[in-house]
Write a structure and sequence with these properties.
156 residues, alpha+beta, Arc Repressor Mutant, subunit A, 4-stranded antiparallel sheet, 5 helices, 37% helix
C-alpha cells in the first residue's frame, strides 16, 4: 500500500478541487518543482489512489432531473446470486451509484432519470427483472443539499 505523506495529501486535495490544473500550477500550489510534482501524480495514479479524472455534469442540464435512491433486499445471499445481481446493476446505465450495505437492506442504488414515468419503466423493465430481489424501496430526492465533494484529506 502506498503511504501518503504531506505533499501527496496536498496534491490530492488540490486535484480534487480542480483536476484541470496544469502541472506547473499544481507544483506551485504544493511547493514542488514541476518534475517531482508530475512524478508524484503518476505514482498516485499507478497506485490506484487517483482513479481517474471526470467532468461533473449537471443532471438537470442533460434532462435527468429525477434522482431516486433505491434500497434493494435480496432473497438469497449465495455467491453466484450476489455476483449476478451486481452484474445486472452495473449494466443499467441510469444507475449511477450502487453501494453494498450492512443492515436490513443489501444495496443502496442511486438512479437518475428524465421523469417519473421513465423511472417507473426502469423499475418494471430492469429492476424487477433482477432475479433474487425480495423487495425494492424507492425514495425520491427533491434537491441536493450537498453535492458530491472532495474527500476530507488533511495535509498532516
Amino acid at each position: 500500500m502506498h503511504s501518503l505523506d504531506r505533499i501527496d495529501r496536498l496534491i490530492l486535495r488540490e486535484l480534487q478541487q480542480d483536476a484541470r490544473l496544469t502541472n506547473q500550477e499544481l507544483a506551485d500550489r504544493v511547493g514542488l518543482s514541476p518534475s517531482p510534482c508530475l512524478r508524484r501524480v503518476r505514482q498516485l495514479e499507478q497506485a490506484g489512489i487517483i482513479e481517474g479524472y471526470r467532468a461533473v455534469v449537471s443532471p438537470r442540464a442533460v434532462d435527468l432531473p429525477i434522482t431516486a435512491f433505491v434500497r434493494l433486499r435480496l432473497a438469497s445471499h449465495e455467491g453466484a446470486t450476489v455476483d449476478a445481481v451486481e452484474e445486472r446493476l452495473r449494466a443499467i446505465p441510469h444507475i449511477v451509484e450502487a453501494h453494498l450495505l450492512a443492515g436490513d437492506w443489501d444495496y443502496l442504488v442511486r438512479i437518475v432519470t428524465s421523469s417519473f414515468d421513465a423511472y417507473e419503466r426502469l423499475l418494471r423493465e430492469h429492476l424487477r427483472a433482477i432475479p433474487s430481489l425480495a423487495s425494492i424501496d424507492t425514495t425520491f430526492a427533491f434537491g441536493v443539499t450537498k453535492p458530491v465533494s472532495a474527500l476530507p484529506l488533511d495535509a498532516r
